[in-house]
């Protein structure tokens, strides 16, 4: 999933970015409201994590402008503004959820997962193909009923493939699921994650389509 992190506090931003990347999110981080508005015009995101007290353009204005464009991207407001009137203002402006700083990181992840499930239109999203199962709600993965432990980026690669079994995803498409702006991407990064997944799932679990990319074999 690609997520836009809008946070002007460098310490918080670095911590949250590191956490989310460890969970397999591709994270684009901007530090003021005008940059956020530009990014939301230029790119399609799966989720937005939005601070309100921003330089340049207040977070509420960013949110209102997003909704005025009929953009339904899920938005989790994360801010130090904890008064009831501030929460009401954020929700009325179009936020899907609201968390007050300082927040617990595990709760933040749970709220993001809940927003992703809600956006999909299903209470519980699960992916299953040829004995491989992912449950994003619990972060559990299994092969033929036996649990396997995946790194955040292995999870993201596998989820992208499981979402489109039988379809070939290019290296660039997979990198777009894993990396945000400015990330240094080694030439064999995707191959490393595919190799790790094959060791855990079985060598035939993911096929290499020569010169094109990777796919899960059709059932």
From TrEMBL:
InterPro entries associated with the record: CheY-like_superfamily (IPR011006), OmpR/PhoB-type_DNA-bd (IPR001867), Sig_transdc_resp-reg_receiver (IPR001789), WalR-like (IPR039420), WH-like_DNA-bd_sf (IPR036388)
PROSITE patterns: OMPR_PHOB, RESPONSE_REGULATORY
Residue numbers carrying 4-aspartylphosphate: 51
CDD domains reported in the protein's UniProt record: trans_reg_C (cd00383)
A Pfam family matched in the record: Trans_reg_C
Response regulatory domain boundaries: 2-116
Keywords: DNA-binding, Phosphoprotein, Transcription, Transcription regulation
Gene3D superfamilies cross-referenced by the UniProt entry: 3.40.50.2300, 6.10.250.690, Winged helix-like DNA-binding domain superfamily/Winged helix DNA-binding domain
TM region positions: none
DNA-binding region per UniProt: 124-218
Residue stretches making up the OmpR/PhoB-type domain: 124-218
Coiled-coil stretches: none
Protein name from the UniProt record: Response regulator
Organism the protein comes from: Comamonas terrae
Lineage: Bacteria, Pseudomonadati, Pseudomonadota, Betaproteobacteria, Burkholderiales
